[in-house]
TrEMBL record, chains A, B:
Mode of membrane association: Multi-pass membrane protein
One Gene Ontology term from the biological process aspect of the record: regulation of intracellular pH
Protein name as annotated: Cation/H+ exchanger transmembrane domain-containing protein
Organism: Nyssa sinensis
Keyword Transport (UniProt): yes
Superkingdom as given in the UniProt entry: Eukaryota
GO CC, alphabetical: plasma membrane
Span of domain Cation/H+ exchanger transmembrane: 45-443
Length: 539, 539
């Protein structure tokens, strides 16, 4: 700036007057910090306590302090936290990439437990946190909150942070934990947003028995339509790319249409007031199963890495943003609470989060263990502990919802509403830094990765192989002219004994016979120059 | 929407209240239109009259009409044209990608002619258009414009559209024309923005002989500092990636850091009030020469295609945007000009653009021909014609500058200022559609691609081969113990006869000895698993 100012004065001509300077400065600061996070994250790769999220959060905090000092305590924010920026630009690529890169077999194998945790778990957590806040806040001194506010607090703090989960759990090392905790996070997101919207719109003076049923109806509608929309968009992209064969002329068109269709699925869901996160997740899942195999080799490599990179940048950006925003000096001033009250509220919220999650993880896991008779499918106590622990982090969704509920300034109660925002901030920063840094070493300490995940995988593959052999034997028997009802009875028995594997087996048969011939997929495209797995495995 | 409304009414719960509906609708419309443009562009690939730009422009116009009808003539715009969106998000990836993918040898071979056209050509065009507008507009009936406005019109309409050039000229088929017209576009951009800013800030009541000198000083400062900043950022990225070796841990970090550094170079230039376009172009050039060779194989494929795809989407987006914006009904109403005046102003502006460009292309090309004694370096008349023709398109830069100058509403003269904006729109749409669709067939008609480009390339390679042999012979002679001064005299003679090739030869020697060992580059990285050219040639 100095050099340019001198020159401008020298020539008495400003050289550029088109862009807004404060925007330009903000972008420069953010891009520089993003680069710094990546470099630091790379240098600390071997360090098991740190990762890019925590680096970004801390760097964000530090830059917030610097801006605060430079502006003489007037402002700590270069960019104001915007829900639009977060929900329109940053969240979709992260969730899409998660669906695109998730191990589909693991995910569907654990689908029932994911739904159990994501739906019932979130509701249990919501009830407990709301109740706890209602009972405890009055004693600390917060009195102006309404019943609606308490329920909103429950919904806000039940939203786990699926982004941070991706960073602390490793899909390769602990596939079971990753798929359960991350899958739960995706379903949890839909549930908590439904709860939050419901809380904001319910007329509390007129609650009847229908209200709960209405909520359930809305949730089911939201869950199914969002999922179907995501699958439909994924299949449309697969069919379109297979039929039109863009790769004939240009690789760029293929990549562009994949990006745009994925984004369109999210925005369409938002337009229809569905859960964009669920939609874009399933769109990513379908795209990786069909569409990805229909494009040229270089498009496959490009999409795989480009989606991962965009998601990676968005993740770091969010943590930087949260870090900088935690020092929202206006809210701190407005809350004008004593340090005691502030710490009290934050500690209460944090304790409620811990209890709320414990109250559903351990019981539901044990219920699931009782239903599953096979030992390899049971969730050990160590795993239950990690599931509880890894889902304690709260992130940008929590902050976005908290601003949405409490940011309306003015009025006599405005300092308590500001206090709720600052307390939520403290919970988010504390949980991310503490749980984010401790989870990796904790997993190593519990020694889960060597003992459980490998045996679990081995057992899984063995059973599938057994199953295939059994089916083959049955098929051969029927071919040899034996009694016809035998294979049917046998499939039914197998279905009872290995429900997930059997569903998977029939899905594969259906997929190969009806889906792949229409929508493409591995081995079902006219132009297969080389193995896609080669490219897929070479991360 | 209908289904969701019904459901919302049914359950009496709105399901999402976080995002702004109009933003969501706008994004949905744009993403859908982008997909449509890509599909149509793919289907019309073999059609030589159409391309994605024209499709996008026409689709934008059609959707503008649809919106206009739906809103009962109240509004034609879903998104308001924003200079920030254009200069901060859309333009940088396009220009960076152009620098990244440009054929460097061709570009530097034609560097002198590019500078000649880009600097002096733009100034000539600026003077002629300003003078013409000054003399002719009064006769049509536009009387309220000031001297400053006339000069601004000259600067605005001297800005050629480098984006559209990329679409109508093919780097493989006509490398000479591509590098001259596109290179001129990049330099022209810097020149016209300098001229525009100068016009906006000069005190016209107090013009003295220093003004011209000051302008020249500003231009030179801008040109050199922007270029140096771009080169420095490119080299920094190459050195950083080579030293830290990100690929050891993660491909995504490499790709992310390349993207962020490229973007940072642009934003840093804007922060320092330099020409971001020049900076990011040279950053792309340096990155493709050094940085690209320092990353892993999959990062190379990813960056190559991801940059091209992002640039591709941004280009289509701009044309869609311009198409929709051309029906800016408020400006049309405000201008309240008769159809005659409107057509008169547009036709005058268009004629001035034609004359202004002819006035420098043909004279400067002939001057260059007189200086170049080798026949293969001369620019034939057919080529001159194509250079003139392909640079006539006006695009988003013109619209952005026009809004910047004339959009201030209110006051008695406001209808004439609005008229200037609508007339500029007409020139942009007309020139893009007409010249965009006719250029490809025209080039085929002039039969340039088969006759000239191949002979030119062949001549180029032959002379370089000769040169290398000559240098080698000289080297051997001096090794044999002959007279020392001979090779020096000989190099000097060669330098005079083949200036560009000699510069290139010495640059290669310098590059191999000093630059590549530090910054990496082809063959100078520790880990070369396979040939990068294989990946590079396989578009």
């Amino acid at each position: 700036m100095a050099a340019s100012d001198t020159i401008s004065v020298l020539f008495s001509l400003p050289t550029s007057s088109i862009l807004n300077t404060s925007t330009v400065i903000a972008i420069n600061v953010f891009v520089t910090l993003l680069c710094a996070c990546i470099v630091v994250g790379h240098l600390l790769e071997e360090n098991r306590w740190a990762n890019e999220s925590i680096t970004a959060l801390l760097l964000g905090l530090v830059s917030g302090v610097v801006v605060l000092l430079l502006s003489n305590g007037q402002s700590s924010r270069i960019l104001v936290f915007s829900e639009e920026l977060f929900f329109i630009y940053l969240l979709p690529p992260i969730i899409f990439n998660a669906g695109f890169q998730v191990k589909k077999k693991q995910f569907f194998k654990n689908f029932s437990i994911i739904l159990l945790f994501g739906v019932f778990g979130t509701i249990i957590s919501f009830c407990l946190i709301s109740l706890g806040a209602f009972l405890l806040f009055r004693r600390i001194g917060v009195k102006s909150l309404t019943l609606q506010d308490y329920l909103a607090v429950g919904a806000i703090l039940s939203a786990t942070d699926s982004v941070c989960t991706l960073q602390v759990l490793n899909q390769e090392e602990t596939p079971f934990l990753y798929s359960v905790v991350f899958g739960e996070g995706v379903v949890n997101d839909a549930t908590s947003i439904v709860l939050f919207n419901a809380v904001q719109s319910i007329d509390f003076s007129n609650i009847d028995t229908w209200t709960a049923l209405k909520l359930l109806g809305t949730f089911l509608y939201l869950f199914f339509t969002s999922t179907i929309l995501g699958i439909a968009m994924g299949l449309l992209s697969a069919y379109g790319i297979k039929t039109l064969y863009f790769g004939r002329h240009s690789t760029d068109r293929e990549v562009a249409i994949m990006m745009l269709m994925a984004y369109l699925s999210y925005m369409l869901a938002e337009l229809l007031s569905l859960s964009g996160i669920l939609t874009v997740f399933f769109c990513g899942l379908v795209m990786s199963h069909y569409t990805w195999h229909n494009v040229t080799e270089s498009s496959r490599i490009t999409t795989k890495h480009a989606f991962a990179t965009i998601s990676f940048i968005a993740e770091i950006f969010i943590f930087l943003y949260v870090g900088m925003d935690a020092l929202d000096i206006d809210k701190w001033k407005e809350s004008s609470a004593s340090a005691g009250t502030s710490v009290g509220i934050s500690a209460t919220l944090f304790a409620l989060v811990l209890i709320g999650r414990a109250a559903f993880v351990f019981p539901l896991a044990n219920i699931s263990n009782c239903i599953n008779r096979r030992d390899s499918d049971k969730i050990e106590f160590g795993q239950q502990f990690i599931i509880w622990w890894a889902g304690l982090m709260r992130g940008a969704v929590t902050i976005a919802l908290s601003y949405n509920q409490f940011s309306a300034s003015g009025g006599k109660e405005s300092h308590e509403r500001a206090l709720m925002i600052t307390s939520t901030m403290i919970v988010v920063v504390f949980s991310t830094v503490v749980f984010g840094s401790v989870t990796k070493p904790l997993i190593q300490a519990v020694q889960l990765r060597h003992v459980k995940s490998m045996t679990s995988d081995a057992a899984d593959f063995a059973s599938l192989e057994d199953l295939r052999l059994l089916f083959l034997e049955n098929g051969e028997q029927s071919d040899n002219g034996n009694d016809q009802p035998a294979p049917k009875r046998s499939s039914f028995r197998l279905m009872m004994r290995y429900p997930t594997s059997t569903v998977h087996y029939f899905w594969r048969k259906f997929d190969d016979k009806f889906m792949r011939p229409v929508f493409g997929g591995r081995g079902f495209v006219p132009f297969v120059p080389s193995s896609p797995t080669g490219a897929a495995d070479e991360t």
